[in-house]
Model the fold of this input.
Amino acid sequence: MLNFKPVTQRDGAKLRRYYKDCSYGLCEYAVGTKLMWRPVLHPAWTEAGGCLIVKNEMDGRVLFDYPVPGLEGNEETALREIESYCIKRGVPLVISVVPDAKAPVLLARYPYVKVSNIRTWRDYIYNAEDLQNFTGRRYNGQRNHVRKFRKSYPAAAFRPLTEADFPAIEAFWTRFEEEFEKDDFKAERELALAKKLLRLLKKPWFCAGGIFDGEKLIALSLAEKCGQTLIIHIEKALYSYEGAYPTLVQAFASCFGRGVRLINREDDSADRGLRTSKLQYGPVKLAPKYYIEPLNELLCHVRDIPALTTRRLTLSKLTKADIPAYNALVLDAGRNRYWGYNDVGGLGGPVKNDSFFKIARDDFKNCAAVNFAVRLDGRFIGEAVLYNFNYRGDAELGCRIDAEYAGNGYGTEAFAVVADWALYQVHLTRVIAKCYKDNGPSFKMLSAVMKKSGEDETFFYFEKLV
Done:
């Protein structure tokens, strides 16, 4: 199980081990974004398979970034760990801000997905040389603004910012807020978060610079290099200095854009003014960020638990009338020592008469499992459970029969009919199962229905494919 811890300033160096060479080019794959937007994204991180895994929480939803591999990272291992985490925690699997190059990986991985690619999420990506030089007719406007700025403020000069500039930075924020015309919550929040992040400009993974008119700071920017992309986290200028913004953009790109091919000026936050401005600088692309939510087969194909029949049995959903017999089956400790799951411990509270029935009902409602009641001449004699849907076309099957009816082949019949239903009606790719190595009856049952696929010190493993 993955163990996440909240992202803090102290984690910056560890995250940078992954982000410094990251090729995704999106602003979310940067330390600055994780630190600046902590109050909104609530990011937490861990490592698995040589990859960085980040889990965010927004509006009550868990959202994962796509894994960022290190030098010998294994994305397959990281994705499996994320999937296992979601299955065990009972939370939907959502991988958000997926870069363009990784979307096909996930679309090929998951048979059923819900995909979003919203325009307002997209980052504005520019050729570094374009912003450094403003060459060509499309940059006539920017060049004119820079010329006018230089003529109006001949003493103005750009230079890197250091800790010694903190007094000038504080004075800049005071003047900026006096000129700040936006009064919506999002803009005010972004400004407050930007001010906090800029206090970290001494961190080695950030580069910061500003334009000074004499001793007065009139524009500033902070960025981070990730792979071949310079990601701009903060870009502010006093509105009273006409032409300060394009002058800052060019000067900052010229100073810190060496050694990178692209500059990411992040998204436009659905702000019309920002959108117009960022488009005027001639982005080479608006980088998509895919929101990919794999769906399990139950959600796509099963609206209600059907009735399945064999030569001797009927399998159907549990009813309230089954509660006494179902409780007796679940609480038979001797019978269930090979079940592999502590039903009582899994309750998380005291056992009530309908506790197990409610769990089965809720698991189906949440597309986590299908519990079939196994019936002989209408009498409840056991259950078959299809569970652990892994989003990749697999699910696990288990079956237990009441001790009074054991040894008659009922488990084999029930197991076989549910496995076929799962493969050919639910459209799974593979049904898997396991049994303890000293459980001879289960080994015999599984061998009659499935193919052995492996073993370890504890279990024999089986599978049945389409």
